[in-house]
Amino acid sequence: MKPTAFDRVLMAAAIVLAILWMLPLLWVFALSLKSNAVLMERTDAIFTTPFTLRNYADILANSAVFRWVLNSCVVAGVQTLLVLLLSSLAGYGFARCEFRGKRVVFALVLAGLAVPEPAVVIPLHRFFAELGLHNSYAGLILPRLAAPFGVFLMTQFFKALPRELEEAALMDNASRWTIFWRVILPLTLPAQATLGIFSFLAAWNDYLWPLISATRPEMYTLTLGLASTQTNFAQSEGLGFLMAQAVFAALPVLVLYAFFQRHIVAAVSGGRPA
Protein backbone atom coordinates (compact mmCIF):
# COMPACT_ATOMS: atom_id res chain seq x y z
CA MET A 1 0.00 0.00 0.00
CA LYS A 2 1.41 3.34 -1.07
CA PRO A 3 1.92 5.79 1.83
CA THR A 4 -0.35 8.83 1.77
CA ALA A 5 0.63 12.44 2.36
CA PHE A 6 -0.70 12.14 5.91
CA ASP A 7 1.55 9.12 6.52
CA ARG A 8 4.56 11.07 5.31
CA VAL A 9 3.73 13.98 7.61
CA LEU A 10 3.45 11.59 10.56
CA MET A 11 6.77 9.99 9.67
CA ALA A 12 8.47 13.37 9.37
CA ALA A 13 7.02 14.47 12.72
CA ALA A 14 8.23 11.22 14.33
CA ILE A 15 11.73 11.74 12.95
CA VAL A 16 11.85 15.33 14.23
CA LEU A 17 10.65 14.26 17.68
CA ALA A 18 13.22 11.44 17.74
CA ILE A 19 16.00 13.88 16.92
CA LEU A 20 14.83 16.28 19.62
CA TRP A 21 14.72 13.38 22.09
CA MET A 22 18.25 12.34 21.12
CA LEU A 23 19.80 15.81 21.39
CA PRO A 24 20.22 15.79 25.21
CA LEU A 25 21.79 12.32 25.02
CA LEU A 26 24.22 13.44 22.32
CA TRP A 27 25.00 16.56 24.35
CA VAL A 28 25.86 14.48 27.42
CA PHE A 29 28.00 12.10 25.37
CA ALA A 30 29.85 14.99 23.70
CA LEU A 31 30.56 16.63 27.07
CA SER A 32 31.95 13.35 28.39
CA LEU A 33 34.60 13.41 25.64
CA LYS A 34 35.96 16.84 26.61
CA SER A 35 38.49 17.66 29.28
CA ASN A 36 37.29 19.66 32.26
CA ALA A 37 39.89 22.36 31.63
CA VAL A 38 38.58 22.99 28.11
CA LEU A 39 34.96 23.11 29.26
CA MET A 40 35.82 25.74 31.86
CA GLU A 41 37.37 27.99 29.17
CA ARG A 42 34.77 27.73 26.39
CA THR A 43 31.07 26.92 26.46
CA ASP A 44 31.07 25.85 22.79
CA ALA A 45 34.02 23.51 23.23
CA ILE A 46 31.98 20.38 22.60
CA PHE A 47 31.82 21.21 18.88
CA THR A 48 35.58 21.44 18.43
CA THR A 49 38.58 19.18 18.84
CA PRO A 50 40.34 17.78 20.74
CA PHE A 51 38.33 14.94 22.23
CA THR A 52 39.59 12.73 25.02
CA LEU A 53 38.75 9.50 26.84
CA ARG A 54 40.45 10.70 30.01
CA ASN A 55 37.15 11.03 31.89
CA TYR A 56 36.34 7.37 31.24
CA ALA A 57 39.88 6.35 32.16
CA ASP A 58 39.47 8.18 35.48
CA ILE A 59 36.30 6.18 36.16
CA LEU A 60 37.94 2.84 35.35
CA ALA A 61 41.00 3.80 37.40
CA ASN A 62 38.86 3.30 40.48
CA SER A 63 39.12 -0.44 41.15
CA ALA A 64 35.80 -0.41 43.02
CA VAL A 65 33.83 0.46 39.87
CA PHE A 66 33.70 -3.15 38.67
CA ARG A 67 32.47 -4.23 42.10
CA TRP A 68 29.73 -1.59 41.87
CA VAL A 69 28.72 -2.84 38.44
CA LEU A 70 28.54 -6.39 39.80
CA ASN A 71 26.41 -5.23 42.74
CA SER A 72 24.00 -3.42 40.43
CA CYS A 73 23.72 -6.47 38.15
CA VAL A 74 23.01 -8.79 41.07
CA VAL A 75 20.51 -6.45 42.73
CA ALA A 76 18.68 -5.49 39.54
CA GLY A 77 18.66 -9.02 38.11
CA VAL A 78 17.51 -10.86 41.25
CA GLN A 79 15.02 -8.14 42.12
CA THR A 80 13.47 -8.27 38.65
CA LEU A 81 13.12 -12.06 38.71
CA LEU A 82 11.55 -12.08 42.17
CA VAL A 83 9.16 -9.23 41.30
CA LEU A 84 8.02 -11.15 38.21
CA LEU A 85 7.50 -14.35 40.22
CA LEU A 86 5.68 -12.75 43.15
CA SER A 87 3.55 -10.44 41.00
CA SER A 88 2.55 -13.33 38.74
CA LEU A 89 1.57 -15.56 41.68
CA ALA A 90 -0.35 -12.75 43.39
CA GLY A 91 -1.99 -11.65 40.13
CA TYR A 92 -3.14 -15.17 39.33
CA GLY A 93 -4.51 -15.57 42.85
CA PHE A 94 -6.52 -12.34 42.64
CA ALA A 95 -7.75 -13.10 39.11
CA ARG A 96 -8.70 -16.75 39.43
CA CYS A 97 -8.97 -17.77 43.09
CA GLU A 98 -11.79 -16.95 45.48
CA PHE A 99 -11.05 -16.40 49.16
CA ARG A 100 -12.50 -14.44 52.05
CA GLY A 101 -11.50 -10.77 52.06
CA LYS A 102 -10.19 -10.88 48.50
CA ARG A 103 -11.48 -7.42 47.57
CA VAL A 104 -10.16 -5.88 50.77
CA VAL A 105 -6.70 -7.37 50.29
CA PHE A 106 -6.60 -6.25 46.66
CA ALA A 107 -7.63 -2.74 47.69
CA LEU A 108 -4.83 -2.68 50.26
CA VAL A 109 -2.35 -3.73 47.57
CA LEU A 110 -3.52 -0.93 45.29
CA ALA A 111 -3.32 1.52 48.20
CA GLY A 112 0.43 0.87 48.17
CA LEU A 113 0.59 2.84 44.92
CA ALA A 114 -0.41 5.97 46.82
CA VAL A 115 2.20 5.64 49.59
CA PRO A 116 5.19 7.94 48.89
CA GLU A 117 8.58 6.33 49.27
CA PRO A 118 9.95 8.81 51.86
CA ALA A 119 7.07 7.89 54.17
CA VAL A 120 8.39 4.33 54.63
CA VAL A 121 12.14 4.96 54.56
CA ILE A 122 12.57 5.36 58.31
CA PRO A 123 10.50 2.27 59.28
CA LEU A 124 12.34 0.22 56.65
CA HIS A 125 15.70 1.44 57.88
CA ARG A 126 14.94 0.54 61.50
CA PHE A 127 13.44 -2.83 60.53
CA PHE A 128 16.45 -3.90 58.44
CA ALA A 129 18.87 -2.48 61.01
CA GLU A 130 17.34 -4.68 63.72
CA LEU A 131 17.61 -7.70 61.41
CA GLY A 132 21.22 -6.83 60.60
CA LEU A 133 20.58 -6.85 56.85
CA HIS A 134 22.13 -3.52 55.93
CA ASN A 135 25.23 -3.76 53.70
CA SER A 136 23.99 -6.99 52.15
CA TYR A 137 22.30 -8.05 48.93
CA ALA A 138 19.22 -9.06 50.89
CA GLY A 139 19.00 -5.60 52.41
CA LEU A 140 19.18 -3.99 48.96
CA ILE A 141 16.70 -6.35 47.27
CA LEU A 142 13.96 -7.23 49.75
CA PRO A 143 12.40 -3.76 50.28
CA ARG A 144 11.74 -3.40 46.53
CA LEU A 145 9.90 -6.72 46.16
CA ALA A 146 6.61 -5.10 47.18
CA ALA A 147 5.37 -4.10 43.72
CA PRO A 148 1.70 -3.01 43.76
CA PHE A 149 1.86 -1.96 40.12
CA GLY A 150 3.17 -5.38 39.15
CA VAL A 151 0.38 -7.16 41.01
CA PHE A 152 -2.23 -4.91 39.41
CA LEU A 153 -0.78 -5.38 35.91
CA MET A 154 -0.63 -9.16 36.17
CA THR A 155 -4.11 -9.37 37.74
CA GLN A 156 -5.66 -7.46 34.86
CA PHE A 157 -3.76 -9.56 32.32
CA PHE A 158 -4.83 -12.84 33.90
CA LYS A 159 -8.46 -11.67 33.97
CA ALA A 160 -8.31 -11.07 30.21
CA LEU A 161 -7.32 -14.68 29.51
CA PRO A 162 -10.22 -17.06 28.68
CA ARG A 163 -11.19 -19.43 31.48
CA GLU A 164 -11.82 -22.18 28.95
CA LEU A 165 -8.07 -22.86 28.86
CA GLU A 166 -8.01 -23.69 32.55
CA GLU A 167 -11.24 -25.66 32.40
CA ALA A 168 -9.85 -27.84 29.63
CA ALA A 169 -6.68 -28.45 31.66
CA LEU A 170 -8.74 -29.29 34.76
CA MET A 171 -10.66 -31.88 32.76
CA ASP A 172 -7.30 -33.50 32.01
CA ASN A 173 -6.66 -33.72 35.79
CA ALA A 174 -3.98 -31.04 35.76
CA SER A 175 -3.25 -29.43 39.11
CA ARG A 176 -3.67 -25.72 39.72
CA TRP A 177 0.11 -25.28 39.82
CA THR A 178 0.55 -27.15 36.52
CA ILE A 179 -2.14 -25.00 34.91
CA PHE A 180 -0.47 -21.83 36.13
CA TRP A 181 3.08 -22.83 35.20
CA ARG A 182 2.57 -24.61 31.88
CA VAL A 183 -0.67 -23.20 30.46
CA ILE A 184 -1.32 -19.69 31.76
CA LEU A 185 2.13 -18.25 32.49
CA PRO A 186 3.51 -18.71 28.93
CA LEU A 187 0.58 -16.64 27.64
CA THR A 188 1.60 -13.69 29.81
CA LEU A 189 4.98 -13.07 28.16
CA PRO A 190 4.01 -9.57 26.90
CA ALA A 191 2.98 -8.49 30.40
CA GLN A 192 6.02 -10.22 31.90
CA ALA A 193 8.31 -8.37 29.48
CA THR A 194 6.69 -5.03 30.25
CA LEU A 195 6.90 -5.54 34.01
CA GLY A 196 10.45 -6.87 33.74
CA ILE A 197 11.61 -3.81 31.83
CA PHE A 198 10.17 -1.37 34.34
CA SER A 199 11.42 -3.40 37.31
CA PHE A 200 14.96 -3.69 35.98
CA LEU A 201 15.23 0.00 35.12
CA ALA A 202 13.83 1.01 38.50
CA ALA A 203 16.29 -1.29 40.30
CA TRP A 204 19.26 -0.20 38.20
CA ASN A 205 18.58 3.53 38.66
CA ASP A 206 17.58 3.28 42.33
CA TYR A 207 19.55 5.68 44.49
CA LEU A 208 17.62 6.49 47.65
CA TRP A 209 17.45 3.06 49.28
CA PRO A 210 21.05 2.02 48.42
CA LEU A 211 22.16 5.36 49.86
CA ILE A 212 20.49 4.39 53.15
CA SER A 213 21.20 0.66 53.28
CA ALA A 214 24.70 0.44 51.79
CA THR A 215 27.21 2.30 53.97
CA ARG A 216 30.28 0.27 52.96
CA PRO A 217 31.91 1.09 49.60
CA GLU A 218 32.11 -2.59 48.65
CA MET A 219 28.29 -2.80 48.76
CA TYR A 220 27.60 0.34 46.73
CA THR A 221 25.54 -0.01 43.58
CA LEU A 222 26.80 1.72 40.45
CA THR A 223 24.61 4.82 40.85
CA LEU A 224 25.63 5.27 44.47
CA GLY A 225 29.29 4.50 43.81
CA LEU A 226 29.61 6.98 40.97
CA ALA A 227 27.88 9.65 43.04
CA SER A 228 30.36 9.06 45.85
CA THR A 229 33.26 9.93 43.55
CA GLN A 230 31.91 13.38 42.72
CA THR A 231 33.42 16.45 44.35
CA ASN A 232 31.45 19.34 45.81
CA PHE A 233 32.19 21.33 42.66
CA ALA A 234 31.52 18.54 40.15
CA GLN A 235 29.11 20.58 38.03
CA SER A 236 31.55 23.47 37.58
CA GLU A 237 35.03 21.95 37.78
CA GLY A 238 34.34 18.37 36.69
CA LEU A 239 31.53 18.61 34.16
CA GLY A 240 33.17 16.26 31.67
CA PHE A 241 33.81 13.68 34.39
CA LEU A 242 30.21 14.06 35.60
CA MET A 243 28.82 13.43 32.11
CA ALA A 244 31.14 10.45 31.66
CA GLN A 245 29.68 8.97 34.83
CA ALA A 246 26.16 9.38 33.43
CA VAL A 247 27.13 7.65 30.17
CA PHE A 248 28.95 4.86 32.01
CA ALA A 249 25.93 4.21 34.26
CA ALA A 250 23.55 4.11 31.29
CA LEU A 251 25.76 1.92 29.10
CA PRO A 252 24.66 -1.48 30.54
CA VAL A 253 21.01 -0.53 30.02
CA LEU A 254 21.73 0.43 26.40
CA VAL A 255 23.51 -2.89 25.84
CA LEU A 256 20.55 -4.72 27.38
CA TYR A 257 18.19 -2.86 25.08
CA ALA A 258 20.31 -3.76 22.04
CA PHE A 259 20.03 -7.48 22.83
CA PHE A 260 16.33 -7.48 23.79
CA GLN A 261 15.04 -4.80 21.43
CA ARG A 262 12.47 -7.06 19.76
CA HIS A 263 11.04 -8.17 23.08
CA ILE A 264 10.90 -4.63 24.44
CA VAL A 265 9.07 -3.32 21.37
CA ALA A 266 6.66 -6.25 21.49
CA ALA A 267 6.04 -5.66 25.20
CA VAL A 268 5.25 -1.99 24.72
CA SER A 269 2.99 -2.71 21.72
CA GLY A 270 1.26 -5.56 23.53
CA GLY A 271 2.26 -8.20 20.99
CA ARG A 272 4.84 -10.94 20.63
CA PRO A 273 8.40 -10.60 19.35
CA ALA A 274 8.77 -11.29 15.65
TrEMBL record:
**Which InterPro entries does this entry report, sorted A to Z?**
MetI-like, MetI-like_sf
Subcellular location per UniProt equals: Cell membrane
Question: Which Gene3D superfamilies does this chain map to?
Answer: MetI-like
Q: Which CDD domains match?
A: TM_PBP2
Residues of the ABC transmembrane type-1 domain? 69-260
Which keywords has UniProt assigned to this entry?
Cell membrane, Membrane, Sugar transport, Transmembrane, Transmembrane helix, Transport
Bilayer topology:
Multi-pass membrane protein
Highest taxon, organism lineage: Bacteria
Does this UniProt record's set of keywords contain Plastid? no
Q: Which chain regions cross the lipid bilayer?
A: 9-30, 68-92, 104-125, 137-158, 179-204, 239-260
Q: Which family does it belong to?
A: Belongs to the binding-protein-dependent transport system permease family.
PANTHER family, alphabetically? Answer: ABC TRANSPORTER PERMEASE PROTEIN MG189-RELATED (PTHR43744:SF12), ABC TRANSPORTER PERMEASE PROTEIN MG189-RELATED-RELATED (PTHR43744)
What protein does this entry describe?
Multiple sugar transport system permease protein
What is the taxonomic lineage of the source species? Bacteria, Pseudomonadati, Pseudomonadota, Betaproteobacteria, Burkholderiales
